Amino acid sequence: MKEDGQNKISFPDLSTKSESRSLSIVAIGGGKGGIGKSLLTANLGICFAKNRLKVVLIDADLGGSNLHTCLGVDLPEISLSDFVARRVENIEETIVETGQNGLGLISGAQDFLGSANIKYTQKLRVLKQIRKINADLILMDLGSGTSFNVLDFFLTSDLGIVMMVPEPTSLENSYRFIRSAFYRLLRHQEKSIPFRKIIEQAMETRNESGIRTPFDLIRVVSKMDPEKGDKYRASMLAFRPLLVTNQVRSEEDAELGVAVRMACRKYLGIDLDYLGYIGYDDAVWKAVRNRAALLQHAPDSASTESIWNIAREVARRLKQKPESALRNIL
């Protein structure tokens, strides 16, 4: 199998991280459902586990979890909802085995009404406990959309991956997700109530201030306080989500990620880091139908090779990435 050979060659070693960075967190989000977030999360987890890292996958789609399906395991009897509802006090009690050595799973909420809209205090408790999990790497599969809970899970990660498919609705939702995540970041960092209100206005699609992009927001803020405008600009330059395109069928689709990166830089002022794409592949739905993870069901498929390449890129960036700006805020 490939993973026993070439997929372990030159795979960046994360075992040399400093003690202060003993745990890395990667979040996979996007503007809509059905774009492959769970597929990527599950199989990235397998990639890292096969490279001797202790990995825990978290199904943070609190309204419709299905990460276990992409791993080919039955729905666990214990889930994140048991921790949220305080049926268990330690989040590590909700980790179940996946059949892959070194890879654990925390299933999403299944029976907790309103779990997709957990309270702020519940969210803080979840985030704090996640950082205490005994693992080398946490991979979080986020829900769709731009709710505050989704954005906060995305922002507290060390690396945030935005997934999209080559469809107009996915493209629009991806732009909205990236813009909303940046505004949410500023909202958490801002202590001044008047400026917080401006940021909150910017988060509304139609607002009286005429703010449509981060450029507009910085322009408005700079007129009021040039120094604060400079700080917002610095935050914008430091905010660098990763991008992956899924279900690519043509050369034009394959080039979409580069086009999106250029458009984000031009119109939003946000510089994405494009990791690559996963082609449309029958092996994917066949793996799901056979209740098996893609990397195990079709180790020689084109999609499997693409995911290994993305895993290498993620590992390389984890070696370089500083801690999340929100680790000490949320």
What does this protein look like?
This protein has 330 residues and is of the alpha/beta class. The protein has one domain (2-11, 22-320): Rossmann fold (3-Layer(aba) Sandwich), CATH 3.40.50.300. The chain contains 14 helices and eight strands. The protein has an eight-stranded mixed β-sheet with strand order 3-4-2-5-1-6-7-8, sandwiched between helices. The chain starts with 23 loop residues before the first strand and ends in a 10-residue tail after the last helix.
The helical percent reads 40-55%
Label the CATH architecture.
3-Layer(aba) Sandwich
Helix- and strand-based class?
alpha/beta
Q: Write the element-wise H/E pattern from the N-terminal end onward.
A: EHEHHEEHEHEHHHHEHHEHHH
Shape: globular
DSSP, total strands: 8
How big is the Rg?
Answer: 19 Å
Poorly predicted runs are 1-6, 17-21
Across the major sheet, the strand order is 3-4-2-5-1-6-7-8
Average pLDDT taken over every residue: 87
User: By CATH's scheme, which homologous superfamily applies?
Assistant: P-loop containing nucleotide triphosphate hydrolases
Strand content: 5-15%
Biggest sheet features: 8 strands, mixed
CATH level 1 name:
Alpha Beta
What is the total domain count?
1
In CATH terms, what is the fold-level topology? Rossmann fold
Q: Helical stretch count?
A: 14
For the termini, the CA-CA separation is 42 Å
